[in-house]
Design a protein that fits this description.
Helix content: over 70%
Radius of gyration: 15 Å
Strand content: under 5%
């Protein structure tokens, strides 16, 4: 059975989002710290919503009938969480020991993740 690169890359993408969503529950403290101050009042429900959305998106990618909708959802989610990446950069890691080069790298990685998700729309 031959698989295309697009089909092969679907699996790591789906697993990435499932794991990221899972991390919102196992490492909630991390996501609470990177929530911008204007949203701090709602950091717990935001974290839960994002975690559930990432898990649902990852699972949805694996189901052909929901793949396109899941990809659109992931794109919208990536746009929604982008301010947290900017906030981390502005605060030099939100008080955590994260290298500045990595914080800068996260911004263009978001663009790559958006393009990767768009591939499945």
């Amino acid at each position: 059975m031959d698989f295309t690169i697009k089909e092969i890359l679907l699996i790591p993408m789906a697993l990435f989002y499932i794991y990221a969503g899972y991390s919102h529950f196992t490492k909630a403290w991390f996501f609470h710290k990177i929530t911008p101050p204007i949203l701090q009042k709602w950091k717990k429900p935001i974290n839960t919503i994002v975690g559930v959305a990432e898990i649902a998106g990852g699972i949805g990618l694996l189901i052909p009938a929901t793949r396109s909708a899941a990809a659109i959802g992931i794109i919208l989610l990536l746009i929604a969480v982008f301010p947290a990446n900017v906030y981390m950069l502005q605060t030099k890691g939100a008080g955590m020991k994260i290298k500045m080069w990595f914080l800068w790298l996260r911004l263009p990685i978001q663009v790559l993740l958006l393009a990767w998700a768009w591939w499945y729309v």
